Structure formats: structure tokens, C-alpha cells
Amino acid sequence: MDSCKTLLVTGGAGFIGGNFARYMLETHADMAIVNFDALTYAGNLESLADLENNPRYAFVKGSVADKAAVERLFAEHRFDAVAHFAAETHVDRSLTDAELFIETNALGTQRLLDAARAHGVKRHVQISTDEVYGSLGPQGEFTEASPIQPNNPYAASKAAADFLVRAAFKTHKLETVITRCSNNFGPFQFPEKLIPLMIANALEDKPLPVYGDGLHVRDWLYVLDHCSAIDAVLHKGKPGEIYNIGGHKDVPNIEVVRTLLGILGKPESLIRHVQDRPGHDRRYAMDSTKIRQELGWEPAHNFEDALRRTVEWYLDNRAWQERARSGAYQDYYKTMYEERLVNAS
């Protein structure tokens, strides 16, 4: 699309959505952002406190699965485009409550697509995940033509959303684009995810729970590189297309953990191998040739440098991290990690 003056960012109080909202306001001086977020356990407006007085930023509380709330939102604002981040994202949670993932990730996406058509929104950018492709063997990378083979309820719900987005383009000619990214890391990430969890536990000399043998491989992408890629897709992506976004840094989880311990000066004896996650995909790797060649995007950050910057951010923001780990998260942490530590001992 030629220009976007008013952008709806769903899930903008989450990790990637929040970083994206800030990135777009800093990058595009003529753009206004409306952040629509339900503020569930992983939504944190404290992460966006620096935007509260920005006249080009507004927050609206609500769920993408709430049809009436979505309709009010689109009726009150004239959006040029939607960047749809809002989703339940943690695989472990989907194993115990798949219905919530279907409601938010699939039904919520359809609510937005319906509203976009009804209100003449020019473009819908769907933020998806490499997990919809399933698991790779020891060689190769996912391309945009790879088959969709989700192996857990979270991935299945995101795949369903992708198919609904495709259907909106094919059936109703709504201008949609899908991005599928690899594992993100960086500032403001909720501490149930691998990197912030390991940093937090290491700082307190607590055990670092690593699933199975720790040799599950992920393609790591710094969140600001992801933001720049979505910006490129929003403005230059071809309608109806899919773009893979990866950092081209495939690293086993155990090596990420060891690197973090080295940066923090903590012993590897803190590592505890715990019972593996059911249906745990062995390896992800993304081929980002298409977005690089067609849109001219390249990641700007080296993995090791970005990881060190991430650690420094958490060291400088330990109070934020402690608040993020409080409340509902503590009960979840005890259930999903501490019990596995006991079972593995």
C-alpha cells in the first residue's frame, strides 16, 4: 500500500506488538497507532508507559474475539491497515486449554477480517508463526511453499487463522498479507519464554529448566528486526502473499542457555533437564529469501550482540521483570516448570 496514516495494532501490549508500536511511531512521523489489547496475563501497559503522552498513540482495551467490541473499535476509528499480533501464544498453555487458543487466535482473526471488510480497511497483515509448518528434520528450511503441519493446539489455531486470512483474500478480495516469523527475543518479553526465563532464574541462582535433551533447534530473530520486516510487508508486501521472516541463526536451546550463563557469569550447573513437552517440535529453520529479494529486508542485528543487549536490558530493568513475574504467572510457573523439575530429579 502507498501509505498508512492510521494503523490498528492488535495485541500491542504484548512483547512483539508493543515493540512494533514503538518502532512504527519512531520510524513514521506521520503515522498514528491505535493499540487494541485485552490485557490478559501477558499484556503489560507498563511496557508502553513512554507512549502514554504521545498524541499519535491511543490505547483501547478489548478482545479480538468480542464481536461487539471489535465493531465499536472500527466504527470509532478510520483505519488504513491492521497489524494483527493479538494471540494466545504459549504452547504449554495450549496443551491444557486449547479452546481459549481457538477462540482468540482463529475466531478473533475472523472478527477482524469481517470488520475490515465492512469498514473499508485497505490492508490486513497477519502475524503468524513458523510453528504452523510443524517440525523439520536435521536438514533444510521452511519456505512459504512448505506444507502446513501444526503439531500442537497453539500452532493449529494459528494455522486456522492463516487459512481464514487466505480465504478473505480469495473470496472477498480483502488485501491481506501473512508473515511467519521464527522465535523472537529482546526487551519486554514476558518471562515464561525461554530467554527471559533463563535470565531471571540465573540472576536468582535458581535452576534453569531445559526441556528434554535441550537439542531442540530454533531460528532466533531479534524483535526489532522482526518489526522492520513487518513494516516492509505493510508498505510493500504483495496482497495475498506469505513472507517468512527469520534471523538465520539456528541454535539448539541448550546452547542459548549456556551462552546466557556465560554472559551473566553463572555456572552451567544451574541447568536442569526436565520432562519434555508433549509434541515438542525438534527443529525450526526459516528460508527468508523471498522477503529479502522482493522487499529488500535484511536483519540488522547480529545474534550474539543482540543477545548481549537483551541481557543488559533485563539487568537494567529487573523491577519490570519482577512485576511481570508476579501474580498469575507465579501459579503457572509452579505448575509448568517446578513440577517438571521435581519429576526429573
Would you kindly provide a written description of the structure presented here, covering whatever features stand out?
By secondary structure, the chain is of the alpha/beta class. The protein has a domain at 6-185 and 221-245: Rossmann fold, CATH 3.40.50. It is built from twelve helices and twelve strands. It has helices spanning 15-27, 67-76, 91-96, 98-118, 153-172, 194-203, 223-236, 253-264, 289-295, 303-316, 318-325, 328-344, and strands at 6-10, 32-37, 57-61, 81-84, 123-129, 176-181, 183-185, 208-211, 217-222, 242-245, 250-252, 271-274. The strands form three sheets. The protein has a seven-stranded parallel beta sheet with strand order 3-2-1-4-5-6-10, with helices on both faces. Helix 6 (194-203) runs parallel beside helix 8. The longest helix is centred in the first third of the chain and has 21 residues, at 98-118. 46% of the residues are buried.
Mean pLDDT: 91
* CATH topology call of the domain at 6-185 and 221-245: Rossmann fold
- Spatially, the strands of the biggest sheet line up as 3-2-1-4-5-6-10
CATH 4th-level superfamily of the domain at 6-185 and 221-245: NAD(P)-binding Rossmann-like Domain
Bulk shape:
globular
- Computed CA radius of gyration, to the nearest angstrom: 19 Å
Q: What amount of the residues lies in strands?
A: 15-25%
> Portion of residues in helices?
40-55%
* Assembly state: single chain
Uncertain residue ranges? 332-337, 339-345
Task: Please write the string of helix (H) and strand (E) elements.
Answer: EHEEHEHHEHEEHEEHEEHEHHHH
